[in-house]
Fold this protein.
Amino acid sequence: MNIASVISKKPFLLGLVGLILLLLATLPFYATGYTPILMTTILMYIIMTVSWVIFSGPTGYISLASAAFFGVGIYTMAILGKALPLPVVIAIAGAASFLVALLVGALTLRLKGIYFAIFTFGLVVLIKEVLLYWEINITGTRGRFVVLESNETVYYVMLILFVLTMLVAYFIQHSKLGLALRSIGENEEAAAHTGVNVTMVKVITYAISAIFVGASGAIMATRWTYIDPYVAFNPILSFMPVLMAIFGGVGTLYGPVIGASMLAYLQEVLTTRFPYYYMLIFGAVLIAVILYLPNGLVGLVQRGWKRVSGGQIAST
């Protein structure tokens, strides 16, 4: 019996997923102190990474606009948080990110390769600088104060967003839309000739993936007393989902979850223990992963199992 036949059994998978969700749902009851806060951050990175993989994984388009959608969510909460209930603001933040991604996708998804990556990263810088100019020269302010929520509330909202993100990613991956995305990634011209509306598929999927990034930005803003354009549109948040997905392995749905969890935890540990050197250490780890683990941790485990068992591991 090989590993593929074991993990393909639905009862096993459902039981494992149910156990993980049960542990996460009860975490604040048995893990006090800093653990729920750390887990909130890890869930945030998982959401951003899986959202990135929804579009960029099958198509091969490297989007660096995650920080833009995250920042839109943050500012939505900062502007509307005092006037509207929390669930409404989070829904509006997701919708606002969807509309921004829809517009950006319609304008830029005819670009390919490095041109698309550069444009999407330029979007982050553009929105940040425009907001900064607006606040300083028009409103006469710099940044905004945010309505704070309890750590437990933030954690449970993030957990709900995590579940929704995983469900949407799974259904897209196993739908005709997912098949169309994979065909685009393999050969875009051939996909168009077989009847796939390439532009529409790319734009719609790109916009859907931005919803959860914006929603997570909105709830994370309630953990901070003060935000400004440099906090909301931090460029590192555009690169981290890409690196986390590569670290875990882009070819599966669970690979990015593993990569985001491990690197988010590593980032927290290094920030706490080595505040002056953590970026150097973190960068060295990422370079080593890119050089020696091109298929991520999942690919490493699959190659190791294949050598040990001598069998062929089915793709998931």
Notes: The two ends are 17 Å apart (CA to CA). Residues 34-247 form one domain. Confidence is low (pLDDT under 50) at residues 1-7, 312-316.
